Amino acid sequence: MALDHGVLNIPLHKRGNIDREIDKWKAEQAALQKERVQLAKCELKDNKAEAKRLWALADQALIKADAKRRGIRYTELRDILDGFVKWEPKKAIKVLPIFIK
Question: Are 97 and 55 in contact, with CB atoms under 8 Å apart?
Answer without folding.
Answer: no
